[in-house]
Batch of 2 targets.
Target 1
Amino acid sequence: MQTPVRPPLRRPERGRVLGGVAAGLAAHLGVSVRMVRALFVVLTPVALFGPLLYVFWWVTVPLGDAAVLAGVKPAHQSRLAPVLSPARVQQLRRLPWGQIAVGTGLVVAAIALLLNRSGSSIGSSWLVPVLLLIAGVALAWSQLDAVQKERKVEARNRVSVLRLVGGLVIAGVGVLLLVGKETEPAVLVQTTVAALAVLAGVALVLAPWWLRLVRELGDERTARARESERADIAAHLHDSVLQTLALIRSRADDATEVARLARAQERELRAWLYDDRPEPGTSVVAVLRATVAEIEDTRVGSEGEAVTIDVVVVGDCEPDQNTDALLQATREALLNAVRHGRPPVSCYLEVGPTGVEAFVRDRGTGFDLDAVPSDRFGVRESILGRVRRRGGTASVVCKDGGGTEVRLQVPRAGAATEAADQPEERTMQS
Amino acid sequence: MSEPIDVVLVDDHLMFRAGVRASLDERVNVVGEAETVEQAVAVVRERRPPVVLLDVHLPGGNGGGGAEVIRLCQDLLAETRFLALSVSDAAEDVVAVIRAGARGYVTKAISGADLSAAVQQVAGGDAVFSPRLAGFVLDAFGTAAGDVATGDDELDRLSAREREVMRLIARGYSYREVASELFISIKTVETHVSAVLRKLQLSSRHELTRWAAARRLL
């Protein structure tokens, strides 16, 4: 048996109190969160060791979900995975009440200090400005969280800017209070202006370097995205196409099987390359394609040859009871066409605003519906009856030049009112 | 039997070119081959064939593939007609070559006899619609009953008759079968199909322009 792999050290986004350090450590070490937190508190009196350690880890440990990182996901799954899961969106939308409370407290403290200073001077209050300074720096640093998340969420950006500005203001006030304790207000203003000018100059000099850094980061990100896309495609080709080719080579003397394998692979590759992969249960077209795939995979034609069905679809909608009946009838019609007709077999599905139509066509000799004995249920019940019971129309047309076409049409459940009372009739008849 | 039609075959896969050459019947005569955009333009300009069989995806040029070849040969379109041949089902591929000026679009699964017939049709000035292309046209122009063109000059909508023809082609009908189904002559069917092709090329319909704009084809 394999020993379970220790999850990597990450700061989780959920279940955190401050920076997620304790929660991350607990998950990494496999101990309870409470114990870790208690340890931090216990270590506080020892020369502030606990908080310092906490801040150190807060800054250095990357953000992330250890559980997600530990389970290695296959490339094709991560490709389909939504960028933002609903839980995460909710997490982002929640207001940061804790931070707002801390910020408000700090601002109130700053104003109180200023008022206090302009009124009666408190001589030995260097402690308060220092605390203010630390609080400002902490507020600015706390946005490291936001930077590490590689998501451009508008609200998140605004909050991080607010944090930066607020932190700067609070820290600046702290510094001014600390340095200018004994000086005149006029001198204080002068030095402030001078300091700001120096800062602006430095920013101007460093700007190009910073811009280049940002651009390089962007380039690197695109390169990484391209790389993962390529790995994704390579993984898919290996999983499906190479295996099918190997199968085809090993069964080269069985023409039907080779044709079937090639067709199945072609279908899969097409779906992977061109389809927009609708959610299951939301697309009539997807259901039809699955039906056709099943028939192509499992049936053979009247002379034992591999089957190919050309499918053309126009529009799409969510399946309902009517379209289900239509698709079942279409399936029966396709099976008939494959079994008794002649290729090429074509299937056309059109989803209109009021109804859904399906046409199944083959080039066989056709048959006379009236000549089919009435005890044979195939066509009459499973194709025509099924659709008519849904308030639709159905007919079988045989052409002079050869070929049979089954024409089916049902109203869409939302569009036609008379379709609403059909289910009862159906239970009575079937 | 009339003279065989000269054709230039443009595709970047040697194996596929060999396959197409072998499958074409005596109605068609392959006079040149090319596998990149530059080669294709050079060969077409040199041979001046009545028909070019053109793959949608080609290396070289500015990455525009088959559509780029047609655009670079714009001055020859009166005498040389392009028939796009592709494995792709993607709407943007179809739109790209048709809007660039191709006279038809068939998928590579087409049989040799059908392809030869399609070449003949294109050489005769007609448009060639595969069921899939017809399905795409219906998708782009809409199938709602009220959305019907009333005049010939209306480019953004299909007339009721054109829509009927497109639906039959999408259902797998040949032009002959369409004609007998609708009790019209084959010539009339061809006129309708050419009209639809023209609309597809010139229409400013929202769906078409969106696709084209998104791929910087305009």
Note: The beta strands of chain B are 5-10, 28-34, 51-55, 81-86, 104-107, 128-129.
Target 2
Amino acid sequence: MPNSRKFKIPIGPQHPALKEPEGFSIALLGEKILGLDIRLGYNHRGVEKACEERSYIQAMYLVERVCGICSHAHSTCFIQAVEEIGAIQVPKRAQYIRTIIAELERIHSHLLWLGVAGHEIGFDTLLMYTWRDREVVMDLLALISGNRVNYGMNTFGGVRRDITPGHVAEILKGMDILEERTKYYVEVATQESTIIKRLSGVGVLTLKDALALDAVGPTSRASGVDRDVRRDDPYAAYSEVKFDVITDDHCDVYGRVIVRVKELMEAYKIVRQCCQQMPEGPLTVKVPRKIPAGEAISRYEAPRGEDVHYVKSNGGEKPERVKIRAPTLANVQAVKCMLKDGQLADMPIVVAAIDPCFSCTDRLISIAEPRKDKRVMRWDELRDHGIAWHRARGIDMDGLNLKFRKMLERV
Amino acid sequence: MSQEENIKQELITKFGIPEANFRLPRERRIFVEVGQEIFPAVFDYAVRQLKFCHLCTMTGLDDGDKLSVIYHLAQDRSIMINIKTSVPKDNPKLMSVTSYFSSADAYERELADLLGFKVEGLPPGNRYPLTDDWPRDQFPLRKDWKTPATKV
């Protein structure tokens, strides 16, 4: 039977789904995935160490660059910890502005993801639509902050830029357009048979597994885990706005689409409430250059899930220790579980469905597929093996090369 | 009494942890420091009895002649407890908590790679996050390890 042979194939370090590096080694039986080994770390840049060598404000700008998509998530999570150590009271208006930017960032991230998901299943129309609509929110972010990514809105004790009444009008206009579009995506996601059939039952992560593996964000909520830091451990202005935590019990990639599309609708709700409730007042308070000794841990619901930053201060100008745990690290563990016993062809969409961000994460996990004849080949060994394999079957490239060279000489 | 205070009192009566080892800086946060000898019992109690069922992350610290690790655990919908324990730097042995949380795997490898912890009970696997050819005796997050930019 041709399907009965087990073999292992390497995928990566160039990512099969998103353009970021990580390595998969997949054990296959025919087309079925028996298990896999994930190697991360290709993007390790030593950000935590670098923070220890910089002043708090420099570290904040560095941390913002941990990730391009959820930059505001990281910088807010970091400064929340520092502000807690320094007992800095952030003005209400600044907290609302942080919340608005956070939700605009979530909208841009989820729309981007929806496009990528569409692309991975060959539904490129969806990619074109969502990425076109994403420009609405990108323009809003550029209008407010001057940047499409790395907004640089935060500073210790508040925010650096105001959201003016003119901005608010533009934001509300944008939210109306996007809500209209998102209603259409909800319709597409719940009625379009291509999506339903392609994604149902793919990359299954049961509620029990999601809890056991500590999955976070939309990945866990699509498996029925009712956790959201915005509600459970509120920060910024989230305790003052009303929104629903979206969960779904499909436990597969389809469920993850539903959760993200519905979270978009909640994000519009939050942005509108913030725009209406945002009080007048100062944007920042004065902050001393030195932060008193102490430690704090800050949690933040980034678009991909819970972001955790721990900061320790020794009373100097530089942080003593900064620890960053990005959501993808928590979710990448669940990928092994989702892919096991699945089809190889489902791998790109399953990996993409956690919305991975490896520049944030860069961690590693492993699964050992028990096998006795384990042998790792170096590149040159693999090449020699390939030449010998073909020669044994009567294909000799050396002879062919010689033939071609002679032909070329004649020309 | 607040819920945080209740948990603190419960741990004090149960394990005799000195009150000075606790810090409740704000609502939903508990910081506690425990010795290695009682750590396994405290951790087990926090996870199984007090239902701190979500391991947010683990932080390793270089505290001079000791290496410390903080386990950041969260309850559903509320409090986060941060349990800190230390081991001597010349023998930084740590018991793996992968039997409680399989997600600890990556965090513990990080402790081993970046700070030089010896984690016992960690299943074999790739290193993380450093490359395979990174020297085994170089631990970048230790305070005496300097980056080339800051080396004098």
Note: The interface with chain A takes residues 25-26, 28-29, 31, 53-57, 59-62, 70, 72, 74, 76-78, 80, 82, 101-103, 105-107, 109-110, 114, 123-131, 140-141, 147, 149-150 of chain B (CB under 8 Å).
